[in-house]
Amino acid sequence: METKPIITLLRYAAIGGNILFILWILFNAMDEGFRGTMPEKLSAIGLIGLLTVNCTLLLTKPSQKQLKSQ
């Protein structure tokens, strides 16, 4: 199965968007001196974690063996 160029472009655009969003969250946190309520801190950490996992999953391409077993 051949990877289409548009899929690859969208994959890297999503990764770039995730990284930009993570940097934006970190910038706002630094601007506020990392102050905030516990729910705000936990939600920021959770969101950064989910975006990082999303980037990791987008970067790892499934092998042909994994695709056939599904």
UniProtKB/TrEMBL annotation:
Keywords: Membrane, Transmembrane, Transmembrane helix. The chain crosses the membrane at residues 12-30, 42-60. This is Uncharacterized protein. The lineage of its organism: unclassified sequences, metagenomes, ecological metagenomes.
